Amino acid sequence: MRVLVTGSSGHLGEALVRTLRAREHEVEGLDILESPFTTCVGSITDRSCVRRAMAGVRVVFHAATLHKPHVATHTRQDFVDTNITGTLHLLEEAAAAGVESFVYTSTTSVFGDTLVPPPGSPAAWVTEDVTPIPKNIYGVTKAAAEDLCPLFHRNQGLPCVVLRTSRFFPEEDDDKLVREAWADDNIKANEYLYRRVDLEDVASAHLLAAERAPAIGFGRYIVSATTPFSPHDLPELRNDAPLVARRAVPDYETEYARRGWKMVPGIDRVYVNERARNELGWRPRYDFRFIVERLKAGEDMRSPLARLVGSKGYHAEVFAEGPYPVETVSP
To answer: pLDDT for 188-200, tens place per residue?
Structure first.
């Protein structure tokens, strides 16, 4: 089967191309950057380029995007052009080509300001039913692109699935205070409790979404590691995350102590993947309990696929303030 992967030189794009090739699919990789995983160098903002790449394609995985780290280095118009217009080009050409499944990679960043409850409130239990309130141009354009997908399902009959992925990037945290307070692996291990997912699990969710899309028609799913918490934990979780984590995964403390690691004092939101597990049949492997077991065994937290893809970064240049520049007022 011929498959199109946009953003094929990126983290997820490479992971998808590797996985699809291993399953002996014919993969067209579209990206603005050359790489061993890109067969067509071009932009999704160029409709003629998209049309050429779409020839003979049965399934589209749309992972190309401008990310949050680009907010300080790209204009708002750049985000609109790539994230909205580029997605529109792909949807229109996919519908015209009779594509059987269209999978759009979105982000939990679309939830924006709904993710931080007021002081004194419990942590947020974030499901697909939570209404997004994007807080920057990245979130706004990703949410707008999401909303194009049900439009094309209703009007053109194109089966579309939107996957809101949580953090899977391997780069350092963009918050200087967080980087100074915790070791990088410590930060990422903590995040598996509430807002991180392994790249291998993200790739498997995409493949399942493509498989189920014709039957689903349109669906929107959170793709994040399975949390050990429940809604009953939310009041305590906001103010005493170590206590709640100890109750859920008792043996984490010994391993953390051995490494000199620490748990975050409070957690303000928990991403819930129940709908993806129930409707897609997704079974993510890399959750906090599994991570602790790998640490105890002296193994790398990351999946083999995540280690193979490695770190790519988001910019060609290096910034003094961190892995990417902090947000400024965009022109």
So the answer is: 999 999 999 999 9
